[in-house]
Amino acid sequence: MVRVHFSRRQLCIPYGLFLALFVVIPMLLILFYAFTEEIDGVLTFTFSNFLNFFTSTAKLSTLLMSFTVAIISTAICLAIAYPVAYILARSKLRRRNVLLMLFILPMWINFVLRITALRELLDLIGLLGTQNYLNTIIGMVYDFLPFMILPLYTTLEKLDESYLEAAADLGGNKFTVFTKVTFPLSMPGVISGITMVFMPSMTNYVVSDTLSNFNITILGKLIDQYFTTYDNWHMGSMISIILLVIIFVTMLATGGFKDDGREARGANLW
Amino acid sequence: MNERKMDEKIIQLVNVSKVFDETTAVENVSFYVRKGEFITFLGPSGCGKTTTLRMIAGFDIPTSGKILLNGKDITDLPPNKRPVNTVFQRYALFPHYNIYDNIAFGLKLKKVPVTYRNDKGETYTKWQKLTRREIDEKVKNALAVVDLEGFEKRSVSTLSGGQQQRVAIARAIVNEPEILLLDEPLGALDLKMRKEMQIELKEMHRKLGITFIYVTHDQEEALTMSDTIVVMKDGCIQQIGTPTDIYNEPANAFVADFIGDSNILNGTMVDALTVRFCNRNFRCVDDFERNEKVDVVVRPEDIEMVPPEQGMLVGRVVSVVFKGVHYEITAMVGRSEMIIQSTQSREIGELIGMNIAPDAIHIMKKELTCNRYDGYITKKNTVVFGDGEFDCDVTTLYPGSHLDEDGYLITAQGEKIDLTDADVAVEVGLTDIEISDNAEEGGARGHIVSLIYKGDHYQYIVRTEENEEDYVLDTEDLWNENDYVSVKIKPENIHMKLKQEIK
Amino acid sequence: MVKKILSITICVAVLLFIYAPILLLVVYSFTDSNVIGKWDGFSFDLYVQLFRDAEIMQILFNTIWLALAAALLSTVLGTAGAIGIFYSKRKFAKPLQAVSQIPVINAEIVTAISLALLFSAVFLYRTYLSLIVGHMVLCTPFVVLSVMPKLKQMDPNIYEAALDLGASPSAALFKVVIPQIFSGIVSGFMLSITLSLDDYIVTAFTKPPMFDTISTYVYNAVKNGTNSSTPALRALSALIFIVMIAVLLAINLRARRPAAKKEAAQ
User: Fold this and answer.
1) Whole-number Å distance between alpha carbons of B164 and B147
2) What is the structure's pLDDT at A267?
3) Does C250 touch chain A (CB under 8 A)?
4) Residue B367: its pLDDT value, please?
5) Count of pairs with CB atoms under 8 A, one residue in B, one in C
6) B187 touches C: beta carbon within 8 Å
7) Which residues from A are below 8 Å from B69, CB to CB?
8) ipTM of this complex
């Protein structure tokens, strides 16, 4: 008896190969490039890219500035998104799904077009070319706001009303109910929103380029420059590694590995 | 069913084992099923009954052993090649098909040989799909069998649980399998529906004349429906027999406990056709070696209540529950609990006598792995059992606890507990008991009533005088029968479990 | 009452922020003016220009076929991958799922340069192959994420039931499993299209030199100072905004209606 078993498991082989070839190997290549340099056409192992980054004031200030822009953008996003998500989730409206839709709809429209449209508006009111940092932050908030609203709405909507009633019943006023019950219970949404806004705000250079007339260089732009302008792929790879470490640390700190809110992007609309 | 047919073995499992990631689900199981039989695998969840069924269906491949269908090895045959169909526990109807398409699913895939005659008059056979008409006809008949005529166009979601169950059965039997496998098919139905379906399934089995292999954890269902019951536990077969056999002559204490209500007591064969339990000797009909440790099973309906002075056993009633047809009375005989079913009621606290006829006492050989006793904790934090008093470590009763200066137990949570008179179940391993000449040394004293040489060691039984409690122990030392000895057990070797929570 | 007014004010203000730039562009796409802010009277001239502009039409076409091809390939690969992972043993499934998460968590720029490194090493940098693969790396993990929950929701016995009734494993897969997870596959496909249409960074690093999508074209227009207020581009943006908003709202309203009806009926 020949044991011919078509196996459903075998279906993951193509995808496994795909991931190995186009995700794992490329990531290893970054690592390889980051710790090598080319001298007279010969690749040699080196720490110089690493040392260079941490001794260059220009690069360190770019990192610091990127960080600041990302933190401010994320904070503003949260400050705007939380009340909106709270109002939507707590409202008794029958059509609140459609209302939510209006808030997150931009997610599905090409962001380059939206940012250029914003550029026109900023131009019209005279901000373009004068307020580069402000414009960049407005742009980041504009681009990533829906990604903050959606996870917040999802957690707040699932929040069991009886917790709030219990807290009120036990003597909590509206303020304490919010600070002691609602907000802590919505933390998963907050964290998920932060991880989805913070990292792109450090790297999406289309926003900063378009709205600062190419005057602001965020970390993502720096990588791009080393690849396209300066043609130093080794340094570009090193900066990528540093960026990866930052992503990893923020994910670890926020526990974002457990529940990735990006899944919500697909589940909600299509 | 005709006799000849019943003799044919339709399916046979030979030394079949199944291991999932190091856990053994089925261990070295062998049995056969006769053609046309209604056989039931019965056992608690995790006993391996469903895995056995799944191996017959072909969903799981045995780790070792063989499965034969009509004498042919089908161990590695995939499910779609087996003449076997399954009714799943949660029906597994295809939600994207209507009732007709669900039932016709197997028929549409089926190819049957059709014989043609060509111009020259020669016959030849072609494998062909069933025609639309044939499929319609078969689906209609299958729906008639399960009383769902006219349901063809309905969607699955519009059906009740019971109706979905019927569709699942129709979907399986329409393929005319040699064996129908049913995996707890009535588990999701309510009680009334379940009773109705039991009768219908039995009726269907009679009409179709095919073999039914049924899996359930419900002993009543198994007793009602089956020709043969296979009782399983921990991946092993405990007993195979007709419902009557299994109920009346359970092979061991597990089967007795699982099938029907029963009182299971520790006993010892003290003489030919005489067993001792509850500190009294009883005549019985089963014969075993003298001094053999046995499980005694007495069905609650087999205990006769009599005035205390006429009873072989005397107990005090602790609870009375009305069960509709009878009362269930629980009485304490010493420290043993006895459940009695009777049409008469008694008052709580009343003393009653109990008589048990010799043929109502079922005796089963006990695989002795350790000594078991009922005991209690004293004021001094020692434990009394088996006619003796032993030092013990009471902190083992509560993990993380310790004793305070006054001898009270302080739990890990800081609660203070008085253990005085707490009932405990005590276990002592056979090798953990020592015997000594010095009568003062041990916790209990008795005579050696039996010694058996077991190859590399001796097994002794020490019996106390007062209540004739036995200590069974393994040792390499040589003693003589009738020696008077004392029994020593180290505190760490006395394993105790509280019988109930202390408030 | 105060609370209600406050709530409405917040919502309206945020919606205004979100839609003001879009609205501005849409409004000024219906006038012939060269700069935004100057109204030269209502006209469809920009749209006429747009559809006459062969270059923009080519780019629109590029963007769409790239999205369709990438989404189709990603959906097939991702669906097979999800089924394979779902039925694999934990020790294979876990690492596969972890690696599958990398492109999801990773910054797009890192994904982009990693692919640039790979394809330049094999002399296929900036080819159609690198472009399609780049988009597949972005999309496929999301297909897996869309299909996986459907597999988890599916009755595990359904596949076995099909085998039991005589279906071969591949027949069981296509007749029973695929229909069961179809909604997940569709949403994975739609999500892939969205991600592909939305992408700039990976496209910029993998595209052939003479190939442009809407994203790269508009970005370069801004960069080269020709500016997006190239009137025809304004019409293109406006058109895309209108079409997308209309389609999304239509899908959403239609999808929710039967559910609402059911609720009302009960």
Assistant:
1) 12
2) 41
3) no
4) 65
5) 62
6) no
7) none
8) 0.88
